Amino acid sequence: MDIPATRGIPTSVVEKTAIRKIAIRIVPFVALMFFINFLDRTAISFAAPNGMETDLGLTAAQFGFASGVFFIGYLVLEVPSNLALHKFGARVWLARIMITWGIVSLLFTWVQDYPQLVGLRFLLGVAEAGFFPGAILYLSTWVPARHRGKMLALFYLAQPLTSVIGSPLAGWLMTHEGLLGGLAGWRFMFLCVSIPAMIVGILCLVVLKDKPSQAKWLDEDEKLWLEGALASENEAKRGDAHGKGGLRAAFGSGRVWMLAAVYFGFIYGLYALSFFLPTIIDGFQEQFGTTFDLFQKGLITAIPYVPAAVVLYFWSRDAFRRGVKVWHIAVPALVGGLSIPVALYMNSPAATVAVIAVTACSIFAALPNFWTVPTQFLTGAAAAAGVALINTIGNLGGFAAPYITGAVSEWTGGYQVPMFIVGFFMVLSSVLMVVLARNTKRGETAAAEAALTAQETIA
């Protein structure tokens, strides 16, 4: 499965300057939004082993359910939210999403028991619904296909960097026990990480524009080139059978559903890692007899994501140069699936974290390249619905991963079995990606042969 528009086409001066300006003006701000988004939704993973579980009396299964129920609220409004973004414009809708999730996130500061925690996690998912696919769709309306992989890689860097920066930051914030009105450290952390969402949400209304023609920082020739390139791509996709019929094209496309299944495995691995890595590190004391303070635990949690950010950048850069191949997505999924169960059989904290780093590198190598695929054959309302549908079905893994991991670890008395389940889903994603690529290639070959036969008949 290639992205043919990324290879072998000369780049004009206007094209270079336009893409460079987008990379400076648009991508970093959207990436900042993603950074805050991922930090807010995973803040519970830092709080749980550092006071919240004890204060609220949570079991491992309850923590897993509370972590995962976020995605139920998220999924309920995912497609409607993305269609609203398509109708009202990204600037207003993404701002609305950020401000409302910031308000809900703030309420975690005063949560008192398990039912309240579950309720707030559900509402946080409702508030955040549509953000990620909306951001992907927004970038696709600014960046032509041949540059999209590179821009998505820069955007996706925010996710591992959230853990690189956010984990030590969360650990440091939680050391401020009683600093504000006697708040516990984990409550103070929730208070602090919620405020940036509201601030950046308001800034979104000023910084972002809905389309290139509204950007004062683009020259007229740059606007004309961008609008022409994007319009040409959309027209080509409308000529494809997969680009017709709006919502019907998305919901009736076998490729969309197959991509949703692939994404499920990626998300299952990502959130099993994100939600339970701090808990696994907290267990090093019992497993290896080591003791770390809150800030040190935050630093250790960040370690796997440093190489993950580096690998994400260079793997995506290679994909941009070659054109995205199926192995750019399938190979990392396979490596991640095989490595994650091995981590819990290591004989030291360093070896455990090293293997987890391999898994993190694998997940983040695959994700940005994966997201170059859907918008290659869907456009308009179909693209909005298709991207949202893939993200919706895939994010069922966001609910399943923490809940199943917590419940099975409680049942078996450890994390070995849950990590084998994670490995299974990631390997399955690798296999499905290969199957999808082969089926697509067969379909394209059959279509080309049919077209040739028709031409010969006419002649």
Automatic annotation (TrEMBL):
Compartment(s) where it occurs, according to its Swiss-Prot or TrEMBL record: Cell membrane
Ranges that cross the membrane: 22-39, 59-77, 89-111, 117-139, 151-174, 186-208, 256-278, 298-315, 327-346, 352-371, 383-405, 417-437
Protein's membrane topology: Multi-pass membrane protein
Keyword Glycoprotein found: no
Species, as recorded: Curtobacterium pusillum
Alphabetical UniProt keywords: Membrane, Transmembrane, Transmembrane helix, Transport
Protein name: MFS transporter
Entry keyword annotation includes Membrane: yes
Predominant place of localization: membrane
CDD domains, alphabetized: MFS_ExuT_GudP_like
InterPro entries per UniProt: MFS, MFS_dom, MFS_trans_sf
Occurrences of domain Major facilitator superfamily (MFS) profile (ranges): 26-441
Gene3D superfamilies according to UniProt: MFS general substrate transporter like domains
